[in-house]
From TrEMBL:
The lineage of its organism: Bacteria, Bacillati, Actinomycetota, Actinomycetes, Streptosporangiales. Pfam families: AAA_16, GerE. Residues 881-946 form the HTH luxR-type domain. The keyword ATP-binding applies. This is AAA family ATPase. Keywords: ATP-binding, Nucleotide-binding.
Amino acid sequence: MSDLPTDRLLERDSEISALSAGVEGAGAGIGSFFVVIGPSGIGKTRLLGGARRMASEGGLRVLAANGSPFEREYAFGLVRQLFEGVLMRADDAEREQLLSGATAEVRHLFGLAFGLTAGEGAHSSEMNLFHGLFWLTVNICRRSPVLLAVDDLHWADDASLRFLAYLQRRLRDVRLMVVAATRPSDPAAAEALLDVVLTYPECRMLQPRPLSEAAVGIVLGEILGETPGPEVVSAYHAATGGNPLLLVETVRALGVRRAGPAGMDDARISEIGTRAVGRHVSVELGRLSPAARRTAEMVTVLGRHADVGHIAALTGLDYATVQSAVHELEDAHILSTESEDASVGFVHPVVRSAVYERLDPADRVRCHLAAAALLTREGRRLDEAAGHLLALPSPEPEHVAVLRQAAKQALERGTPESAHVYLAHALTGSMGQRERLDLLREAITAALLVDGEAALGHLDVALRLTHDPVETGELLCLSGLTKSLVGRSTTMIAQMVEAITRLPDDADDLRRGLEAALLDAPLAAVGAESVLRRIPELVRLPRSDTLNAALLECMIAGNECYAGDPRGAARAQAALRHPQMLEAAAKGATAGLLGHFTLMVGDPDRGIDAYGLLIAEVRRRGSSIALGTSLTCRAMGWLRKGELAEAENDLREVIQIRRISPVGTVLTMAQGLLAEVLVEQGRIDEASEILQEADLPAQLPQNGIFYTCLHARARILATGGFHDRALDAALAAGSRFAGHNGINPAIVAWRSQAALCLHALGEPDRARAYADEEIELAERWGAPDTIGRALRVAGLVGPPSTMPKLLERSVEVLRRSPARLELAHALVDLGACERRNGHLSVARALLYEGMEIAQRCHAVPLAKSARSELAATGARPRRSYLTGPESLTPSEARVVGLAADGLTNSQIAQRLYITVKTVEVHLSNAYQKLGIRRRHQLRDALPAQV
């Protein structure tokens, strides 16, 4: 069986032109991403083949892969198809070069091919694997430009789809062209992930149209050897809708090669049309030898492992007979042997599906069992065998053991979706209660990373199977606040309180773990204030050195932080010293993440340093939720310091991670903070767009962190002069924050915003009340930047007679803090006050200092305001004087420091999880600020600490 009998791609000029431009671009170092989309048989595979030919002729290395409905649960299966051959054919020296640096993290994905021991390189996070795979791609492209050709993208595994989405945003300067083919919809597809790939702005969509009547006439003429009449052409066009594959197979099914067009009519063509491919396959297989039929069936089961040796092993046929059968199937246009390796494949996915559907269900199960056994005997990866076991209606005990082991390896290798699929299928088998409970525990662990509802389903089953109070407590502790996150806080609280009550006296450590999980409820959802009444008793617990005790301390500290209790910062600092805390937080322990947050709220410098260590560990071994949370909270610290570019970088990364992996409820917090960063930079329209993307409902759900978005909305509205609406938004932020027992203005300064709005609306008394309350709360918490901001706002909304003194106090306090942007605001406000009072020389000094800091923070509106005030004093300020090492942003300083130490741009990019282009931009900016032109001048231009 084949596609169009002609070698030409009929009526595909625009698609070929676009693909040709992509080939040229890849050769010139301009990456591109194309998706050919259309229904089955429209010619997607032929276009992909055309792209491969053009790429080969243009000097590109072609790496190809095919999605398969039978390998959807085989994590990174598509990725392995693309790269495994390259690594297998490389010599030792080349392979080491390809797998150097950040790429070393992906060795275990191809481990068995290179003699690595089981488990080597394991425990990588999925984001770290994406990072490593990207650099593997870059390393391959350094030798020559590359085409990645992926057919049937709709059947790709989730992990590979996420990698392609990750790759999309990093193509600009890579000598790479990606061309994928997919159907517009398929029930087996991961539609959400496909949408991420397809909706990427720079993804070029190619949508081949059905053939016209003229093109149908050309095809018929080439098949028949003579020109068909217009009535025949019209009949075939109407019956097949111009679908190339359906056209060819309809002609084949009607036997026109032998009979010619005579006697063909619309009714007969229409009757055959939609069933042509399946019928053709059945007819052709019926004409072939039994060995050929069995070979075709084995190829459908084996997938990419279908070579002559494996087919012979499963069918019991000798090698020569299988070879002969393969040739038979090639002649019948059913199989193709055109792959780079020795594997055999079908000429079209529709053919593969037709053959698979012919298999008797019982025979299908036997074939998959045999394939799993064969791959296991050969020492293949467990997930390859496990993929076949998923075809069993109910696994036997020996299969359950394989599935559990495959799930364990999948978790270690950063693919929790696959792990959960294996475990969920294992649970359909027969087993004793003890084994089922253990298996349910494993399934909960995997599902918590990918599907909270599924995790709770497993939990409910497990709780019904056990009456042991310790085991019940362990299960609830394992699931943590999942029920709260899906809107079941009341149920979660009741279950945990009962479990804690039932625990025996000798279960102290488990009790602390449960109490820690319970204290998470008020911070994740509103309406759980009753839990907070437990804190006084928990504070009096005797000292313990266990991890659960440290996690409980972190959770108490977090609630104290929200409540503005200064004891929280010291408590968190002590708890974070536990030797297992970094690992626990990296793996997503909410209490550990909250401990870091509390530390940052108390001291942004110390918190940012702690987050730096945590984020490095999360990137290597943690979850995307832990990474998103850590980046968001660190961004809050950067914002408080006035490092707006750093805050934006972290928050943009969170939003990009969200495209391909879950980040939990922290997304809305990240969006709100990013909007605030943009407001400080004067990018009001972008800030508004971010809040529109957040799409806050009128009635907020019980769970979720929404107060940062509401506060950002208030700031945007106030900037536009809509002070009444801004006041409503500020008060809404305060109400939502209070629902989490939130009082601390260091987390969200809604009272300051409300005071400024009320002052603008002509309500000074109410404005001063909010400002005075914020001063009191800020002084209780004790963070200088929070106190300084409260004093500044109090000065702005208070009587004119009190303004100078309050603003002076604000500047004095802020000089002792790391909050440079807040200091700039205070300096400019004080300078403006002194200018109005006629103290021009004092005003100029304050305004110059404030303007310089604002410029270094890239706070455009504040710098503009300072210049305006300076002009009013008679001064003529320079537009900008951002030079010297102190003008470098933290990101620029990191890049410059590594470059000065001798690292190449590529090595810097791999170490910092950024692109080479970003490194180049940072270095270019740094050269300008440092007044140098060459890399070797960096060391002399930097102070010792950079």
